[in-house]
């Protein structure tokens, strides 16, 4: 999960780097003090030491830090831009980050309630004999290849990186607004997850008031929330944005058919086909396609009105296809009495969970599908956007739509998870500043306030860890 706070993670990294630099200095001092006797065979060691020192100097000069499972790059190139943002319209920024502070405090309490509710749902799902899906849970553990398609990993990582950058921009601009020195901005990769961080002058951060600290610490989750709302607005307005190039409401456009799909074949679906209906269920968008498949799966198998004179000829597959394509749908024989020619309602004899389905995609002949509807749903990709011109890509609206959904999901998750009062997350610093601002008149001893904060952080960390552990078990074990 890309839900480790880059901001608080950077504070830990700075202390690690300071220790590393001290270790390197001591090592070099010892190395220079050691040799009193020189041997010709020691020359390769000097070359190796010199090469290592040159490599370390090159990394430092370029702002790079490399360690096991972690790589980061820090620069001051963007400092001028950050200071321009932090000094732009001071009254507006004061109001903006004050609203963010209120949101961050509310999110801290709300995240605990949400995690507690999610934990109860997960436990009830684990203990139930017939476990249900996790679709009703707002927070889910994401495992690539299990509940995250490998083909969509690029969306996932890019959305995490953008969400992390926006998160850190919030911290940086808020810090400059509160007169905290801004040292630099950077990007890191932890194992495979990308993120960002800002380097702030810790002494300045400790000298300002708790309310000012809250504006800085809450700015990250506030900006993630705003990014999620902005992505939601873009997703909602996407048909209007793409209207000059694409239109909607005329069907579901096929954009991809998997090689192992039951819809793949000479009488199946092809890229560019426009699906208009599934049986008697009209399809005008991808949402209609999914709802129709769900509706059909919950209802008994549909029958077809077949003339009595044709019924005896249906042992030939070609004639069976023609008879089905030309017939109307029915549930009972009474539905077939509208014609003057005697007809019977014939229902295909199928196994459990298997469906016979007629898919209309004019001007092509109907596709007759036999199999599990989920297999059809997961192996055919569709879009609600139909290009007005042949040179337009059928994939562009899908890419934009999918990316907006990932931004909404991941940026929202960062806002919620980072607000949890948990060690190493923004919630830790939000809680500490909140307790300093509210408990100081009642709890005079700072040590007692720190004890209260520690106990709350311990509970929040345990709650988050339990959600992650049980969520992983549910996703991977079921």
Automatic annotation (TrEMBL):
Q: Which Pfam families match?
A: Peptidase_M50
> What sequence ranges are listed for the domain Peptidase M50?
155-457
Q: What membrane topology does this protein have?
A: Multi-pass membrane protein
Q: What is its EC number?
A: 3.4.24.85
Q: What is this protein called?
A: Membrane-bound transcription factor site-2 protease
What the protein does comes down to: Zinc metalloprotease that mediates intramembrane proteolysis of proteins such as ATF6, ATF6B, SREBF1/SREBP1 and SREBF2/SREBP2. Catalyzes the second step in the proteolytic activation of the sterol regulatory element-binding proteins (SREBPs) SREBF1/SREBP1 and SREBF2/SREBP2: cleaves SREBPs within the first transmembrane segment, thereby releasing the N-terminal segment with a portion of the transmembrane segment attached. Mature N-terminal SREBP fragments shuttle to the nucleus and activate gene transcription.
Which organism is this protein's natural source?
A: Phrynocephalus forsythii
Q: What is the predominant subcellular site recorded for this chain?
A: membrane
Keywords associated with the record: Membrane, Transmembrane, Transmembrane helix
The reaction(s) this protein catalyses = Cleaves several transcription factors that are type-2 transmembrane proteins within membrane-spanning domains. Known substrates include sterol regulatory element-binding protein (SREBP) -1, SREBP-2 and forms of the transcriptional activator ATF6. SREBP-2 is cleaved at the site 477-DRSRILL-|-CVLTFLCLSFNPLTSLLQWGGA-505. The residues Asn-Pro, 11 residues distal to the site of cleavage in the membrane-spanning domain, are important for cleavage by S2P endopeptidase. Replacement of either of these residues does not prevent cleavage, but there is no cleavage if both of these residues are replaced
**Per its UniProt entry, what is the enzyme's top EC class, as one word?**
hydrolase
User: Where does the UniProt annotation locate this protein?
Assistant: Endomembrane system
Family that this chain belongs to: Belongs to the peptidase M50A family.
Q: Which residues cross the membrane?
A: 93-116, 155-176, 182-201, 221-247, 407-431, 451-475
InterPro entries in the cross-refs: MBTPS2 (IPR001193), PDZ_sf (IPR036034), Peptidase_M50 (IPR008915)
Its BP terms in the Gene Ontology are: membrane protein intracellular domain proteolysis; regulation of response to endoplasmic reticulum stress
Annotated GO molecular function terms are: metalloendopeptidase activity
Its cellular-component GO annotations read: cytoplasm; endomembrane system; membrane
